[in-house]
Amino acid sequence: MPFTPFHFGPGLLFKALAPTRFSFASYAAAQVVIDVESGYYLLTQQSPVHRSLHTFVIGGLAGAAVGVVGGWIGRRILPRVAQDQRAAVAAELAGTSTLLGGVSGGLTHALLDGTMHYDMHPFRPLTAANPLLGLLSLDALHLLCVLTGAVGILLLCRPRIWRRSPKG
């Protein structure tokens, strides 16, 4: 799934379940960073397309690096944010939330892609086997990603909907 929005669905659900402890921005950035690897190999017509970044170990470390960079950016941006916006920005760019978002992005990328790409070895360096391959059909995987995203959006919007509803 190079450069696909399907990967964002689980991240939206994670954000809804832990809104102040999870950075969706870092999660999404980790997804994109990891797919840059596939994009490069696709553009240069090299095989395999999914290499080191598409493993749990290296993908998780890449996600952690994205999280650290996100936290660094957050520390520079937060003092400039208006007071009434500070809590929302801090929830997205605080060091612990960016780290959790980045690592989650790196790990879920290997998990999601591992179920569908034959050239994936998500458990390297432990094994070249891919027991995830074929666990879900492509349609089921896409549906899972869309449903987790839809549930995440609904949960994230719920407080706003409740506040606007008439009392009585």
Could you describe the 3D structure shown?
The chain has 168 residues and is an all-alpha fold. It has one domain (5-162). The chain has helices at 8-17, 24-43, 56-77, 86-93, 95-114, 138-164. The radius of gyration is 17 Å and the shape is globular. The mean pLDDT is 91.
What key phrases describe this protein's structure?
mainly alpha; 64% helix; 6 helices; 168 residues
How do the helices and strands line up, and which of them pair or pack?
Blueprint: H1 8-17, H2 24-43, H3 56-77, H4 86-93, H5 95-114, H6 138-164
Helix pairs in contact: 1-2, 1-6, 2-3, 2-5, 3-4, 3-5
Give a short account of the largest sheet.
Answer: none
Spans where pLDDT lies below 50 across 5 or more residues: none
User: What share of residues is helical?
Assistant: 55-70%
Number of structurally distinct domains: 1
Number of separate helices: 6
- Give helix and strand order, one letter per element, not per position: HHHHHH
What is the tally of beta strands?
0
**Which overall shape is indicated by the principal axes computed on the Cα atoms?**
globular
Cα end-to-end separation:
48 Å
* Whole-angstrom Rg: 17 Å
Strand share of the residues?
under 5%
Q: From the helix content, strand content and strand pairing, which structural class follows? A: mainly alpha
Overall pLDDT score: 91
